[in-house]
Amino acid sequence: MKKIFLTTGVIMMAATVTFAHKNSGRKGDTPPNDVSDRTKVQFQEDFPYATDINYVRTANFDEVSFMSGKQKVLKSYYDENSDLVGTTQNESFADLPGNAQKKIQKYYPDYSIVRVVKYHAVKEEDDGLDMLESRSEFDNPDNYFVELKNNNKAIVVEVNLSGDVGFYTTMR
To answer: Under a CB-based contact definition with an 8 Å cutoff, are residues 166 and 138 in contact?
Structure first.
């Protein structure tokens, strides 16, 4: 179930779509649009040196945007149990491995780059749950998601750290 929610979350993030949360099984008395206090405490433990912190409740996650020590804006995502699911940060096309840049330019020449997001999944080793629906070449929990757009269509491709490129989804 977490796989579905996380995949949906990454797609929503890439499209910059945020939905209002309906209180569906969240523990405690947290109002539906508020980030839980447990998440706030957990975030402080996970990222004690974060600055410029902003909390938002999205459809499936508590989302926390913040500045890291390297002056990069990051977002972290927490599930209904206030467990860290993954982090993202915006990147540029130039940050992709060189061979991935060439493949994208070759196979998607009529598309322009809208956004590049680097995603780091936190794997839960104890329950064996892979946080992303991944194919064998995308087993690393660190991947880039590149949103591409032309006149007719918007798509997202997934790029692993080795530069393998694979179609991920069509945007609506």
So the answer is: yes
> What's the confidence (pLDDT) of residue 64?
97
Q: Which amino acid is at 22?
A: K
C-alpha–C-alpha distance, residues 87 and 71, integer Å? 15
Amino acid identity at 28: G
Give residue 109's pLDDT.
Answer: 96
Phi then psi for residue 42, to 5 deg, are: -65, -40
Per domain, the residue ranges of the chain are 2-170
Domain spanning 2-170: which CATH class is it, in words?
alpha beta
CA neighbor of 140 nearest in space, from 128, 130, 155? 130
Give the 3-state secondary structure of residue 168: strand
Reported pTM: 0.71
Tell me how crowded residue 134 is: count the other CB atoms within 10 A of its CB: 18
Question: Burial of 125 by CB count in 10 Å (0-12 exposed, 13-18 middle, 19+ buried)?
Answer: exposed
Among candidate residues 62, 30, 25, 60, the one with its CA nearest the CA of residue 46? 62
CA atoms of 122 and 77, how far apart (whole Å): 10
**Mean pLDDT of each 10-residue bin along the chain, 172 residues long:** 46 38 42 85 95 94 90 91 95 97 97 96 50 45 94 95 94 84
